[in-house]
Design brief:
Layout (H helix, E strand, L loop, with lengths): L41 E4 L4 E4 L16 E7 L3 E6 L8 E7 L1 E2 L2 E2 L3 E10 L2 E15 L15 E2 L4 E5 L3 E2 L2 E2 L2 E6 L5 H8 L4 H9 L8 E6 L17 E6 L2
Parallel strand pairs: 9-14
Antiparallel strand pairs: 1-2, 3-9, 4-5, 4-16, 5-11, 6-10, 7-9, 8-9, 12-13, 14-15
Length: about 240
């Protein structure tokens, strides 16, 4: 099991546009039922009132299926190819490209994508979520929801997504934008697909440790290069990664 830790702030928001603020606890070293831990992937030991590393499995999105046959089910993006624009001018839409690695034993015909962001001052954190709506498995291996051998990946979906445009109080962001393609479980994504609110989405994402390979940073200022229309015409203008392997 892989574990990470990073700082977080908790904020509610709306899809595509929101302002938010983070208020630190007076004593982040203590916690209880009303004072949750402030670090990603940490949980409160209410007996000792201290934050401890949560026992969260980030090596798979669901336990192995009993017989290898399942579905149709919601399946989140876990591993695959991701490209995000390297820079953008204030007010630009930031293109995001997603192509999930899906085991060859899985068939699916539809997907959905959602993006949202939260800002503090001139720094904004974004999320890009993508899931298959109707994944069906036949004779799948036990690690079909995990880190199966990369040679079994199929890339049947190429998804054009975005982050932003980022506008705060009517003004385009001048600062730094990040977008994260987080680890989420099948169960998490099923709740999101059913209409979970943005506050619940952020809370769910922040219950997991953060993997920096899944976080893309985009400077947004007048001297930066304008964001490209997409990341497929000229991939060199985007930061392209294989994540989750």
């Amino acid at each position: 099991m892989i574990r990470f830790a990073a700082l977080l702030c908790t904020a509610g928001m709306t899809l595509g546009f929101a302002t938010a603020a983070c208020t630190p606890f007076e004593d982040p070293g203590e916690c209880d039922a009303n004072r949750p831990c402030t670090e990603r992937g940490m949980t409160c030991d209410t007996l000792n009132k201290t934050c401890v590393e949560a026992d969260i499995d980030v090596d798979q999105t669901a336990p192995p299926d009993d017989d290898g046959n399942f579905g149709p089910t919601i399946l989140p993006f876990f591993r695959g190819k991701v490209c995000v624009a390297k820079s953008a001018k204030p007010g630009d839409k930031i293109p995001v490209y997603l192509s999930p690695c899906i085991h060859s034993c899985i068939t699916a015909s539809s997907f959905k994508q959602k993006h949202l962001y939260s800002c503090v001052g001139s720094s904004c954190d974004g999320l890009n979520l993508m899931w298959l709506e109707d994944a069906t498995g036949a004779a799948c291996p036990s690690d079909v929801f995990g880190r199966f051998d990369q040679s079994f990946c199929t890339y049947n979906f190429e998804i054009t997504a975005q982050q932003g445009p980022v506008v705060i109080d009517g003004k385009a962001l001048i600062g730094t934008m990040t977008t994260e393609i987080p680890v989420l479980s099948n169960e998490d994504m099923t709740r999101i697909a059913a209409g979970a609110g943005n506050s619940e989405i952020w809370s769910t994402v922040k219950s997991y440790p953060q993997d920096q390979d899944r976080v893309f940073t985009i400077p947004m200022n007048d001297s930066a290069d304008a964001a490209p229309a997409d990341c497929t015409t000229d991939p060199s203008v985007c930061d392209c990664r294989d994540i989750g392997f």
